[in-house]
Amino acid sequence: MTTLSDEAQLHAFEARIARGDKVEPGDWMPDRYRQQLTRLIQQHANSELMGALPEGQWIPYAPGFKRKMALIAKVQDEVGHAQLLYMAAETLGKPRVEMIEELINGTSKYSNVFNYPCETWADIAMVGWLIDGAAIVNQTIMQTGSYGPYGRALKRITYEEAFHLKQGYDLVVTLATGTRAQRDMCQEAFNRWWWPTMMFFGPPDRQSVHTEVLQRWGVKPKTNDEQRQIWLQKFVPKIEELGLDIPDKGLHRDPDTGDYVITQPDWDEFFRVINGDGPMNRERLALRRLIYEEGSWLRTALEKRDLLPRAA
Ligand code: BYC
Questions:
Q1: First-to-last C-alpha distance (Å) of the chain
Q2: Is residue 117 in a domain?
Q3: 251 part of a folded domain
Q4: How far is the CA of 23 from the centre of ligand 1 (A)?
Q5: Crossing angle of the two packed helices 65-90 and 31-58, in degrees rounded to 10
Q6: How many C-beta atoms lie closer than 10 Å to residue 130's C-beta?
């Protein structure tokens, strides 16, 4: 039996990606492709799991039964998204228990946005609208990427996020068109979430360390700045329509391209937050750790009966 040299395998792999073929778990792939995807999907799964915490903590305080039901359903969906994504990451060979342990001991990352406090009900509205809206932009792009299991998981997740976005938008519209106190609460929450949302898509392209390799292998069809621009084009007109005041006083449109030009967020703050030193990092991770420890009896019981979910 003849085996291809590493160089020939890489060449064949890149030719498949150029043709738009999907890479599947059993296929040959460069180690770096596997590592990059594992990192990315693991971080994404962590974000879904951690993202359930700020919203979950607001369930008891939701104003009314209908809002409470919608929020419970959303939180349940987010945990389900984590489940799908951990399974997609497991297809690359990393066991889930290792990924969860890295999350709770702080050695793997999750989205910057979940390290900020949700001070009022209006923050929940902003997470549902701005952050779920940003996630949809990101995931609609990433689902066309080259790794089959990630793309398929994202397709399903994005479908559910569309409901979350509607829920978030409805909350924002209610507050933005409500009483003076509601409008003020909405504006204050919007001010808090504008900059973290700008950071959601990652550092500017010139500072991005992974974009080049992810683009070479078709994992990330658009760069961080391109994704941010798509979000701005979609959201700024809606924000203006609602009469919300954008805290970036330098925001304007480039007269030649029509692109939005933003004032750069505080990227030092971003790097502090994603490396564990944001306003809520310790509290959020402590809660996640507690949940993990308190759930150990259930994992043991499932393991004994061989009922723990496995990657496909
Ligand atoms: N937060 O080279 P770069 C949701 C890190 S959940 C934290 O540009 P890349 C929801 C990056 O990892 C959906 N870290 O990276 C849930 C790297 O650090 P390492 C969340 C970030 O990968 C519940 C360094 O910065 N979505 O919506 O090319 C309720 C340099 O960055 C962030 C995802 O996770 C960040 N925002 O591109 C409601 C999307 N940005 O690894 C809502 C999936 C960058 O070298 N991820 N870093 O230590 C992606 O699409 C890409 O990873 C990114 C960054 C576009 C975010």
A1: 29
A2: yes
A3: yes
A4: 22
A5: 160
A6: 26
> pTM for this one?
0.96
What 3-state class would DSSP assign to 262? coil
Cβ–ligand 1 distance for 135 under 6 Å, the answer yes
Q: Check residue 312 and give its pLDDT.
A: 56
Measuring from atom 44 of ligand 1, which residue has the nearest CA? Answer: 202
In the reported structure, the alpha carbon of residue 217 is separated from the centroid of ligand 1 by a whole-number distance in angstroms of: 18
Q: Is 140 in the pocket of ligand 1 (CB under 6 A)?
A: no
Short-list 74, 66, 26, 23, CA closest to 48: 74
Burial-class residue 224 by CB neighbours within 10 Å (0-12, 13-18, 19+): buried
pLDDT tens per residue across span 46-70: 999 999 999 999 999 999 999 999 9
- Give me the pLDDT at residue 311, please: 59
Work out how many domains the chain is built from and give that number.
1
Give pLDDT, residue 2. Answer: 53
CATH number (domain holding residue 131) = 1.20.1260.10
Ligand 1 proximity of 208 Cβ (cutoff 6 Å) = yes
DSSP class of residue 129 equals I
Which residue of 37, 39, 41, 43 sits with most ligand 1 atoms within 8 Å of its CB, as the best mutation to test the pocket? 43
* Assigned domain for 195 exists: yes
CB distance 122 to 85 below 8 Å: no
Domain that holds residue 81: 30-304
The structure tokens listed for 35 are 């590592």
Contacts of 219 (CB under 8 A, 6+ apart): 33, 36, 37, 40, 142, 145, 146, 147
Q: How far apart are CA 37 and CA 49, in angstroms?
A: 18
- Please check whether residue 25 lies inside any domain of the structure: no
Q: Structure tokens of 304?
A: 């004994």
